[in-house]
Amino acid sequence: MQVQNKNDGKRGAFFIEDNGKEVALMHYIFSGPDKFIIDHTEVDEAYEGKGLGKQLVRAGVEYAREHKMKILPYCPFAKKIFELTPEFGDVVF
Question: In which order are the strands placed within the sheet that holds 3-7?
Fold first, then answer.
């Protein structure tokens, strides 16, 4: 299971599938050309506690770094991960 990303230039999602079924999702909205807002994260109940949500946030941070973007973690889960992971601070706006 690996994190995938899809977006249409306005909004997008990082997601993880298991056997063709989406089991984790982190939705984001672009806020200009160099920022995006994480507004929702969810993990299928059967996959909770396996670190999938953290993988999604990490993928978002890597994407932001690669594209020289900043992130606003509006979603409570993402916000908590950012608070617990000081090394993600370089991408927060």
Answer: 3-7, 11-18, 21-30, 35-43, 70-73
Taking the C-alpha atoms of residue 89 and residue 56, their distance in angstroms, rounded to an integer, is 16
pLDDT computed for residue 93 by the predictor = 93
Angstrom distance (rounded) from CA 41 to CA 32? 21
SS3 sequence of 26-92: EEEEECCCCEEEEEEEEECHHHCCCCHHHHHHHHHHHHHHHCCCEEEECCHHHHHHHHHCHHHHHHE
Cα–Cα distance, 32 to 23 (Å, whole number)? 29
Alpha-carbon distance of 73 to 89, in angstroms, equals 11
**Which stretches of the chain score pLDDT less than 70?**
none
CA geometry: angle 61, 29, 31, nearest 5 deg? 90
Other beta carbons within 10 Å of 69: 19
Task: Give the predicted TM-score (pTM) of the model.
Answer: 0.96
